[in-house]
Amino acid sequence: MRLPTLQTQPALEPSVLSVVAARAVDELMREGESANTLASYRSALRYWAAWFNVRYGQPIALPLPPSAVLQFIVDHAQRTTPNGLAHELPPALDAALVEAGFKGKPGPMALNTLVHRVSVLSKAHQMRGVKNPCQDPQVRELLAKTRRAYGKRGELPQKKAALTRDPLMAILATCDTSTLKGLRDRSLLLFAFASGGRRRSEVSQADMKHLRRNGPASFTYTLAHSKTNQNAADRPENHKPIEGIAGEALQAWLAASGIHEGAVFRRVRKGGQLGDPLSAAAVRDVVKERARAAGLPDMFSAHSLRSGFVTEAATQKVPMADTMAMTGHRSVASVLGYFRPSSSNPGAHLL
């Protein structure tokens, strides 16, 4: 069958991506990334540009040579020398980066931050379709040996403490039920914990269109998209029950706030007026402020809810499959990374 030739638009050249199509590709790529991921990419690339400028006295331009990436690593990673730990970033340049707001404090980077920033640079080269210096054998070998060196020194990533049942109950006791803010914070904390330890971005993005009421104080929240389900695959574990005291708290918040559509959790302004949806950072602040109000040590963050759920589930002998269905993890190794063993581990008393 011969198709008619349409003359309403000029023909495209198959070997060249049009300006409009290139813009559409860029927009789809941005939309497909989470807001937190995009923010971390921007922060990392801003730092690369600033570091390159002060280190080499010229603007950054891709592709970078492997020697620049090697310099970046030794500038920010500590190594053992006869005089103790050292890194190569000159103090004057370090101070300039801190003063300009590109670094939070002087000194070497955390290993995770360093690895992430090299990963972001690698991604930037891939997206530009230019030769990637991060794939250079010397760069890959140096990163691998740097990780090993940190491990040999016992410098492991500092994980936040698990917000298990007892500290969570102490925090909930600070949430009064006579104010909108108190009702919101209580509901937010219980929603995040009871639905499998939701990440702060998932809590801030919770929307009424994904919430189904099953009965008095009983809901199901459908988490269609998450870090562990970025393609929004339709899975049975997407549906998270919100029941018991978590369901009661959510029902109280919705009834008092009058929210029927849009974001579930929102700012509460002075005078009890509802504002914009809470940001992921605001969710973190709720956890930290409530923990502080409960007199708890400064060791909890929003991610503590996720490790708290996993740890509490293990303590209460919830089957691993049920725990993973709630958290959304697809591998046992991943979910075990959130388990925080206690000093009362029975494995320590076998003899």
UniProtKB/TrEMBL annotation:
Alphabetized SUPFAM superfamilies for the sequence: DNA breaking-rejoining enzymes, lambda integrase-like, N-terminal domain
Protein name: Integrase
Keywords for this protein: Chromosome partition, DNA integration, DNA recombination, DNA-binding
PANTHER family: PHAGE INTEGRASE-RELATED, TYROSINE RECOMBINASE XERC
GO biological process, one term: DNA integration
One Pfam family per UniProt: Phage_integrase
Domain Tyr recombinase positions: 158-351
Keyword DNA-binding attributed: yes
PROSITE patterns the UniProt entry points to: TYR_RECOMBINASE
GO molecular function: DNA binding
Database matches in Gene3D superfamilies: 1.10.150.130, Intergrase catalytic core (1.10.443.10)
InterPro entries in UniProt: DNA_brk_join_enz, Integrase-like_cat_sf, Integrase_catalytic, Integrase_recombinase_N, Tyrosine_recombinase_XerCD
Coiled-coil intervals, chain numbering: none
Claim: DNA-binding is one of the keywords in the record: yes
